[in-house]
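Notes, Module 5: Reading structure tokens.

Key idea: the token line is not a picture. It is a compressed description, and you learn to read it the same way you learned to read a sequence, by spotting repeated patterns. We will look at two proteins. The first is printed below with its tokens.
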Amino acid sequence: MFSARMFFEKGLCLSEEHIITRLADESKIKMVKKGRLLVEEGEIQSLLFFMIEGVVRGYVIKADGQDITDCFVYKYGDVAVGINGLTGPSRINIETMSDCKLLVLPASLILSLMEESQEVLQLYNKLLLIGLDRHWQEKINLLSCSAMQRYLWFLENYPNLIDLVGNKYIASFLGMTPATLSRLRRRLREMEGFGIRALDRVKSIYF
């Protein structure tokens, strides 16, 4: 059975008892169906969504109506948030890509606790740095790597997600068309048919 206290103690590695108690008391577990919009671009995000189970994606809509996937959240303990500072309007839309189990906290509580607790502030800074590092990895790959390199990077950094999310969303995230992604997946499956050494050779060629 899921325990909010255990989530904050073990999942987020918090140790201050009064902080854990406040977070556990004010958190809610929310079951959300696939395809629900959690946050709309431009909206002030009043709630933070921590992943327990499921897949969430962030995306933007370009002026021409094109839907571009910006990020995925699916690892236990990761937070779905549309802006770094927690106070301004969200820069992205956030929607569920599967039925999700989320731990929900008021953003105002986190902002308040950051002023009270050095531990919470350090956790926020840690999550922020992890998010920024991930963001720059993604952008560098998008700008400087081939389509195959980007796909192999995705497989290594987002294990199992390829089977949980539709091709068009992953293709959008990787800056390619769904048809290109399908060709890459087929090519890699063909190589895997020759054994793991062949797949390693493909990786050595593209990296």
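Here is the second protein, with the sequence above and the tokens below, as before.
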Amino acid sequence: MRKNNKKVAKELEFDINIGDILQFQLKQQDEVQKLYIKLIGYLPGHSMVATAPRHDGVLIKVKEGAPVTVRLLSGNNVLGFDSTVIATTGTPYPYLHIGCPMSVGKIVIRQAQRIDGGLIMSVQIENIKGKTCKPLPVKTTDISTSGALIESSIELGHAGELITLKARVNISGINEYLTIPAIIRNVRYERSKTSGRNYYYHGVEFQILEQHDSMLLHGFVYEQMMALTL
């Protein structure tokens, strides 16, 4: 098993990295659950090792031999393959082994990995006295797994300052709540191409600390990008 962040799947002609978020589709009792797991290891020709899936913080039991479908983002491609859970363990923490795919399907998304926004979020900022102000409504004009462009009627801060974004997102038909710390990288004041009004536009870089929020964000972006292929 490799334990660094180098690409580990060149043999299969697609790029995958330790720490990548994977969509894990598990069929149980005639229902397909779409969950998200993190790749933590890989041995070519043997198995992919990933964290055990959870839903609302609750561990999902997965039986050895269970058929699964795995999908992930790689550049401007959505990759997918069918496989089988070949082993599960709870020691020293819950994780599972997924059989290496013999072939991988690919859907090309003919756009950048940033998706059009329209996602309403709230933002919390601190005033000059260090006190947290009331949440302010803002809107994303585009968003990716690493950052977003935030539209606001007021300036939220200066480059290098930290803000906290919160949003409710729908993933696989379930409403989830995201909390995302972010650093402002740039700010500009200009006319909106859609409304004709002037707004502040903040380019922000996400600084996600919680694995749960990271998986939710990847799940949301993944499903929005999949919608572009339909």
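Summary for the second protein:
- The first strand starts at residue 21 and ends at 28.
- Residues 1-12 have pLDDT under 50 and may be disordered.
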